[in-house]
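quick one
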Amino acid sequence: MASIRRVMRLLDTPIAIPTGSHPLPLKAVRGEVQLDNITFAYKDRNHVLKNLSLHISAGANIGIVGATGSSKSTLVKLLLRFYEIQAGQILIDGIDIRELQLIDLRRCIGWVSQDVFLFHGTVAENIVYGNFDASHDDIVYAAKLAEAHEFIVQLPQGYDCWRTRSKTFRRTTTAISNCTRNSQRSANFDFG
Ligand SMILES: Nc1ncnc2c1ncn2[C@@H]1O[C@H](COP(=O)(O)OP(=O)(O)OP(=O)(O)O)[C@@H](O)[C@H]1O
Ligand SMILES: [Mg+2]
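structure w/ magnesium ion:
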């Protein structure tokens, strides 16, 4: 009962991040990312990013390296608008992300978190969550893209195998699920 109350409270929580109105159809995304002089602090904390500018060309593969706590994960969360910057601008394909429809923004970014989570279900169900229209062929296609298909078919029940505790499995399936949800336009891997 206490858990249900907590879930209901969560469902009733107002959404603090307002959506913009500018559409960004997945097929139209090029993937250019620009950070213009951004500053950010978590609530009631000191700044973790100050006056940061960065330009990532469309189609570039980049890695961001830094010490623990240097805000690598925070950068990705700001790109997805899990938090709002206090100053500056983040642009995707030249459009301020605050102007974009939130659903479109989040659909065009695939994020594999460093803290991955698997739902209580099969490999296929863990790949497909977030896109219930995906067919079995879509799931296999995404698994092949993530180079996990070979490993999955060797599991006792293949795609119908219940989740395992293997670290590789966890990371790989989460990566795949993001690919499945977001096609191949843009992916963001946060392993640190
Ligand atoms: N939800 C939060 N509330 C308050 N402070 C936070 C929150 N999340 C992260 N921080 C703080 O923000 C700073 C940046 O954290 P972040 O997780 O982005 O670093 P990181 O570079 O990804 O580190 P790691 O290499 O350990 O993954 C740290 O000082 C961290 O303690
Ligand atoms: Mg991190």
